[in-house]
Q: What sequence folds into this?
């Protein structure tokens, strides 16, 4: 008996080894999908968009509560971030007309289309609100611009998370439930931190609360995302993404602790705390960006989840067939 695995003592083990290897390798070990073609401007675009969107919401709420100095500083931050954000996107696209072409139609099922319109509308309304806050002009237009900018802040802060989750990149697609929330938490952290840095301690209490709430949510959501990803979270524990992830958690935790303790009394501590939180939020965006490249380049991150889904479908299908046969026999 030499033809089958049963005729060799190690045949079963070798067959199992070959099967396990098949789940880990693609054809000649080549990547199954292409790496993203985005340039390094994109994670900064993610960061600036979140900062601008959340700062607009903070500025509007501060104005409603009568915190005029905090509102003015936050509108200025929002305007600066939303001026830089489209510049980064256009630089990645290569030519300005490519961004304008995305505004030729509105497709609600496309995160890129929705995001382009949200970015354009948010930039316009934020500019009106910021110019009115700084100069006192355009008061009529700013009355509509302020609440519109605040309302557009949340979708602006989260659409990039939804955008990358729609791609085939495994570590992004499998985290599609957590990424928009993680980006929203990072945006809240960034807006609160930037306003904490730019505003005197006595006027920055709402900004500190937002920064602290965002930091705690960001740390929790990052952990939840990694636990749900399972083996797919490996890029977050090694290589460039792992180093950035460690830097993000450390900076965010240190900044949050400083905000909760000394930033309420010391202007210097507030500046250091805000800077740490901004660094942590930026590193988190970069970590997600780099993890996507790592998961796209390794075929096992693509093959294993696909095979797992096929196995689950077959198992559920087999159970359905067995139930059907039992019902027929009855």
A:
């Amino acid at each position: 008996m030499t033809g089958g695995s049963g005729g060799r003592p190690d045949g079963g083990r070798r067959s199992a080894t070959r099967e396990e290897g098949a789940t880990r390798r693609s054809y000649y070990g080549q990547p199954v999908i292409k790496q993203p073609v985005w340039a390094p401007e994109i994670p900064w675009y993610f960061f600036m968009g979140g900062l601008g969107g959340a700062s607009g919401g903070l500025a509007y709420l501060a104005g409603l509560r009568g915190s005029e100095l905090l509102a003015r500083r936050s509108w200025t931050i929002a305007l600066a971030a939303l001026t830089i954000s489209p510049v980064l996107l256009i630089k990645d696209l290569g030519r300005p007309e490519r961004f304008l072409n995305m505004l030729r139609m509105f497709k609600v099922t496309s995160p890129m289309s929705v995001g382009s319109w949200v970015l354009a509308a948010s930039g316009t309304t934020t500019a009106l609100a910021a110019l009115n806050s700084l100069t006192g002009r355009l008061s009529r237009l700013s009355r509509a611009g302020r609440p519109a900018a605040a309302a557009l802040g949340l979708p602006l802060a989260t659409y990039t998370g939804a955008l990358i989750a729609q791609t085939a990149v495994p570590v992004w697609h499998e985290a599609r439930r957590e990424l928009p929330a993680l980006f929203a938490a990072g945006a809240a952290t960034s807006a609160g931190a930037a306003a904490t840095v730019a505003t005197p301690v006595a006027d920055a209490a709402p900004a500190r609360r937002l920064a602290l709430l965002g930091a705690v949510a960001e740390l929790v959501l990052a952990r939840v995302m990694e636990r749900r990803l399972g083996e797919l979270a490996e890029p977050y524990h090694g290589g460039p993404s792992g180093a950035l992830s460690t830097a993000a958690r450390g900076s965010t935790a240190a900044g949050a602790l400083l905000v909760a303790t000394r930033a309420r009394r010391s202007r210097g501590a507030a500046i250091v705390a805000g800077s740490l939180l901004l660094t942590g939020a930026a590193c988190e965006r970069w970590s997600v960006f780099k993890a996507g490249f790592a998961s796209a380049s390794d075929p096992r991150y693509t093959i294993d989840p696909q095979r797992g889904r096929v196995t689950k479908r077959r198992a559920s299908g087999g159970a359905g067939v067995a139930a059907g046969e039992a019902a027929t026999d009855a």
